[in-house]
């Protein structure tokens, strides 16, 4: 059986099952639902709106539907950035690269959402995306185009992770037909890059990109 880092070297991606084990992934999934519910409730009340900050509290999609017109997004969430930091050693082992963590992102997709075909920005040279959980009759696949221009379908169970070269392999999702789908993204860059975007240019982890 080919080692994960060798597969990654040859294909620029690798899929790992149960990267986040149960019951930890169930904890993350429930957390994502509560966080999304909290944001929705806060923005539905007068006092909540008056104290709302999209940078600190999370936001609803602002990409004109490119990454899910109904999605709820959390950049730099403290729990997800803890996962980012603590997963560094494992991600390095599975890619064969020395890396630095840049940022984490949590997104709750909802019915009718999709993700346009795109490459990631320069803080995402090595991206890893894990399914946390969903309510749907079937898993929601993520697609990517590999180095040989083949379209690859990746279907994830909760806890499975896809590690890929986010700036090199275009990736996308078709329209989601379920109720909701929770996904986390943890991003890294090669340590030896002149501008490796450590912490995504922030002074600390778990804070917004721009304040």
Description:
This protein has helices at residues 4-11, 24-42, 46-50, 54-57, 78-86, 88-95; strands at residues 13-16, 59-60, 72-75, 99-110, 115-118, 126-135, 142-145, 151-154, 161-164, 171-173, 180-190. With 211 residues, the chain is an alpha+beta fold. The mean pLDDT is 94. It is built from six helices and eleven strands. It has one domain (4-190): Jelly Rolls. It is globular and about 55 Å long.
Structural class: alpha+beta
Strand content: 25-35%
Which consecutive residue ranges, at least 5 long each, have pLDDT under 50? none
Q: For this structure, what is the CATH class?
A: Mainly Beta
Instruction: Assign an overall shape.
Output: globular
The total beta strand count reads: 11
List the helices and strands and how they pair.
Blueprint: H1 4-11, E1 13-16, H2 24-42, H3 46-50, H4 54-57, E2 59-60, E3 72-75, H5 78-86, H6 88-95, E4 99-110, E5 115-118, E6 126-135, E7 142-145, E8 151-154, E9 161-164, E10 171-173, E11 180-190
Antiparallel strand pairs: 1-9, 2-3, 3-4, 4-11, 5-10, 6-9, 6-11, 7-8, 7-10
């Amino acid at each position: 059986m080919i080692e994960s880092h060798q597969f990654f070297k040859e294909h620029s991606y690798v899929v790992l099952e149960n990267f986040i084990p149960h019951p930890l992934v169930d904890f993350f999934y429930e957390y994502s639902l509560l966080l999304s519910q909290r944001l929705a409730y806060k923005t539905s009340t007068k006092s909540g709106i008056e104290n709302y900050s999209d940078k600190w509290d999370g936001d609803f999609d602002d990409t004109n539907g490119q990454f899910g017109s109904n999605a709820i997004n959390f950049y730099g969430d403290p729990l997800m950035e803890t996962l980012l930091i603590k997963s560094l050693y494992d991600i390095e082992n599975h890619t064969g690269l020395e890396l630095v963590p840049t940022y984490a992102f949590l997104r709750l997709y909802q019915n009718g959402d999709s993700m346009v075909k795109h490459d990631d920005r320069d803080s995402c040279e090595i991206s890893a995306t894990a399914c946390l959980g969903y309510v749907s009759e079937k898993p929601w696949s993520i697609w990517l185009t590999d180095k040989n221009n083949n379209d690859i379908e990746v279907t994830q169970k909760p806890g499975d992770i896809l590690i890929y070269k986010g700036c090199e392999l275009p990736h996308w999702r078709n329209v989601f037909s379920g109720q909701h789908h929770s996904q986390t993204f943890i991003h890294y860059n090669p340590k030896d890059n002149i501008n490796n975007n450590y912490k995504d240019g922030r002074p600390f982890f778990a804070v917004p990109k721009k304040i």
